[in-house]
Write a structure and sequence with these properties.
The protein is an alpha/beta fold and 325 residues long. The protein is built from 11 helices and 8 strands. The protein is 39% helix and 18% strand. Helix 3 packs across helix 4, helix 4 packs across helix 8 and helix 5 packs across helix 6.
Length: 325
């Protein structure tokens, strides 16, 4: 056999082996670590377990009752949906709960599919987080004692990403708060590759394509999942039929940089969104900064038409140190 032909054959074998290796890397990276939850939430208010389904999968969660009746209207309480991020679970976002339920809100917190105690799917994605937020909202609206017209969302990292994408699916809520959220999908991908000390090129370009193929997400769907476009379309005052949005990020977040949010704020028209930059270190610590609750609780109260009520966020630092896993 001609030497040139052998070289060509060996070249194609190497290419196929590399392609198979990168495919396996992409598939493994699309399988988040699954951390089981604590048996009971460490909270100082009444709670109950709940389950709901989405696309045939069972999702498990907790419903926390408000610690006071201050915000009841016709016997119904406003509710905040807590959406965790990639590789997390509902136990890990307990760190947010105390100031919220002490202010008079109920809380629905759940494990997204392929996380915590919920059922797993073969190819989780950002659109999965979006769809799970929508399913949680529909569940919340039917809960006894909950006002279906007074629901807001607080999402950490990819949970916030999914919550904003849900607005483009017609989701109607009183407000959305995001914390430490990647503004762009490739920001999250590059951050994960750096964390695992893997080369950005070509993995940062090839692995997202593998994710799309495995999740059966078309290129057009991917392009439509643009946070800047969604915000420009849906964010703003509720007086004009838009959704109030507050986006928070820590300047000390070494996993997802705050620079994306700063650039987004500069690109958007004034007053379209509210932003807050805190001074904690890490990707899951923003709530430890006192300014977090000084801004978030009044924002949620105002979104629920309680602008005249001013509640001081209490116990935030104690809650953070005890529950920030």
């Amino acid at each position: 056999m001609d030497v040139v032909l052998w070289i060509v054959i060996i070249f194609f074998i190497i290419v196929l082996l590399l392609a198979a290796l990168i495919w396996q890397m992409g598939a493994r990276s699309q399988k988040p670590r699954k951390i089981m939850n604590a048996e009971t939430p460490l909270v100082d208010t009444q709670w109950q377990s709940l389950t709901f389904t989405n696309h045939g999968s069972k999702l498990e969660g907790w419903l926390l009752q408000p610690a006071s009746n201050d915000l009841l209207k016709d016997g119904l309480a406003p509710l905040i949906i807590l959406a965790h991020g990639w590789g997390s679970n509902r136990t890990r976002v307990l760190r947010y709960t105390r100031p919220i339920y002490e202010a008079g809100f109920a809380i629905l917190m759940y494990d997204a599919r392929s996380h915590g105690n919920s059922d797993s799917i073969s190819a989780p994605s950002a659109l999965m987080f979006r769809d799970d937020v929508l399913a949680a909202l529909e569940t919340a609206k039917s809960l006894p004692g909950i006002d279906p017209d007074r629901i807001a969302i607080l999402g950490h990292s990819l949970g916030g990403f999914g919550a904003l994408l849900a607005l483009d699916q017609g989701m109607k809520v009183r407000a959305v708060v995001t914390d430490s959220m990647p503004v762009h999908f490739d920001t999250m991908m590059k951050s994960e590759l750096r964390r695992k000390k893997l080369p950005l090129f070509p993995l940062a370009y090839l692995i997202p394509m593998i994710w799309l193929i495995r999740s059966r997400i078309s290129w057009s769907q991917f392009k439509e999942a643009s946070i800047p476009a969604v915000i420009a379309k849906h964010a703003g005052s509720s007086d004009i039929g838009r959704t109030p949005i507050m986006m928070i990020h820590s300047n000390g977040d070494e996993f997802i940089s705050a620079e994306d949010l700063k650039q987004l704020k500069e690109q958007l028209p004034d007053h379209l969104i509210q932003t807050l930059f805190v001074s904690t270190k890490g990707h899951s610590t923003s709530e430890q900064d006192s300014s977090f609750w000084e801004k978030v609780i009044p924002f949620l109260l105002e979104s629920m038409e309680y602008a005249s009520i001013k509640k001081e966020a209490r116990g935030t630092r104690r809650q953070a140190s005890r529950e920030n896993i």
